[in-house]
Design a protein that fits this description.
The chain has six helices and two strands, in the order H-H-H-E-E-H-H-H. It has about 160 residues and is mainly alpha-helical. A hairpin with a 5-residue loop joins strand 1 and strand 2.
């Protein structure tokens, strides 16, 4: 089964929480309380998110964490890259893959196309989209060009 890790799920919850805080600094304990993620886990994830450049960390009294930029400019692809590394559904889906069968494989290019489609979908959905009800997430066009319905007929 293809799924994101629990830590990535928690990290996404943390980012959504920070997105709702309107650039206000939030302590790690406040983030943990607001997301129901255990404080040691929240602290660990906040450090990873800060290292990746998605979150700013301000030390000292009155310090805390906040997003580095607008939630609409942070894609789910960037979130997954920061927390889990690039999405790769097969070994050959990444540039530095290490599959011994790759030179002989007849399905590798199909998996790479599927992986690219997933990447496009992850790039199209932003943290701002994740911060709102599911009805607000944009619809994706993942159909083949040949499967698109014909344009409507024009009456003259």
């Amino acid at each position: 089964m293809f799924r994101i890790s629990r830590l990535t799920d928690y990290g996404t919850l943390i980012l959504v929480f920070l997105a709702t805080q309107e650039r206000r600094l939030c302590s790690a304990s406040e983030v943990a309380t607001g997301t129901h993620v255990a404080q040691p886990t929240a602290q660990k994830l906040l450090k990873v998110l800060a290292k990746s450049g998605l979150v700013d960390s301000v030390r000292g009294m009155g310090g805390g964490y906040q997003l580095t930029r607008n939630p609409a400019s942070i894609t789910t692809a960037q979130i997954l890259d920061a927390l889990d590394g690039p999405v790769a559904i097969t070994e050959c889906s990444i540039d530095d893959g290490d599959c011994v069968l790759e030179p002989l494989c007849q399905v590798g290019s199909a998996w790479q196309k599927i992986n690219n489609a997933i990447r496009v979908a992850l790039t199209d959905i932003t943290l701002a989209d994740l911060s709102h009800p599911q009805a607000d997430i944009p619809a994706l066009n993942l159909t083949r060009n040949s499967e698109k319905p014909p344009p409507p007929a024009v009456d003259h």
